[in-house]
Amino acid sequence: MKEIDPWGNALVDYQKLFTQFGLQTLSPAMKKRFSSHRGFRRDIVFAHRGLESFIKTADDGKPVAVMTGIKPSNSFHLGSKLTAEELILLQKEFNAKAFYGIADLEAYADNGLPLEQSHEIAIDNVADLLALGLHEKNAFIYKQSRNAEVMRLAQLFAKRTTTATLEALYGKQNLGLYFSVLTQAGDILFPMLEENGGARAVVVPVGADQDPHIRLTRDLAAKFAAEKGFEPPSATYHKFFRALDGTTKMSKRDPQNILSLNDSEKEVKKKVSNALTGGRDTTEEQRKKGGQPEKCVVYELMQFHFYDDDKDLKDMKEDCTSGRLLCGECKLQRIAHINEYLKKHQEKKKAKLAKAEKIIETVSNPRS
Ligand code: SF4
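^ thats the input. predicted complex w/ iron/sulfur cluster below
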């Protein structure tokens, strides 16, 4: 019986991750250190594994790396944006080499997406990553299907992993998905290979539902420590953003209920206008009692993704809970803000597309 489904839409019980699976809370010193990012200030990035040892290694001046990736099955949505922002923050804070794996094999195994199709999506995704601020000179971006060393690691790990272990972590899945998780373990441990800089400390920013991958990889690192010199990777965990209708976590499988960084003004208007709010049944009631931002997906949108300034968020909350602002007007204000953000982002991205294409076309193997 699987515990958490990395491929599903179900919301995760965060408390269980602490009590049952041993996640650690972020210390005040960690929160302070990363407070330039709203995710760390607002408990959106809420947990870690082994982050203190990563920080110590980095502060001792030893080489460190930050690793994450994307399944190129669709355009960058807000979850991908949050992960990319964490990657960029950690790259900058520790002068860490950033490794970004394009999980095209998983897109094939999980979504049946042919590699030629995911290749085009990968270019678009990498342009988003560059536009968000990745320092590409201190980064290595690659596609799984073209990275022979990651594939060799996956093969090696397969020799010492039983289907019973995988079934306990992921439930009954086809062999393609099982192999894709071993490939992800290869992605995470790949930066530790001597020829890639041998950074023994690697941190992986992930969504909470990716924890089974982290646990599997930490076990594999321990199994192959003597042979390969691996250390268990560290990880930071962020919470999920709900789908716009508030029913499940946001997922690319449900395009009408996600916001993508490619969305047009019209699409944003339509999607946000239809999003779940914490509004009351009648105008009178809302004027009297105020709205309920804790139930509202529009509030979450701004909290998680679009208001960097804490004062903007505080003002939004006060306008809502005081009943001064009703949901219709509130949505119009947020739609304008989101569209302004996306317009700027899309301009920056356009300027990065040629570079993204070059990166994806030329990364045929790790040392090319
Ligand atoms: Fe949400 Fe705004 Fe309505 Fe409050 S007023 S419930 S924040 S949409």
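Confidence is low (pLDDT under 50) at residues 364-368.
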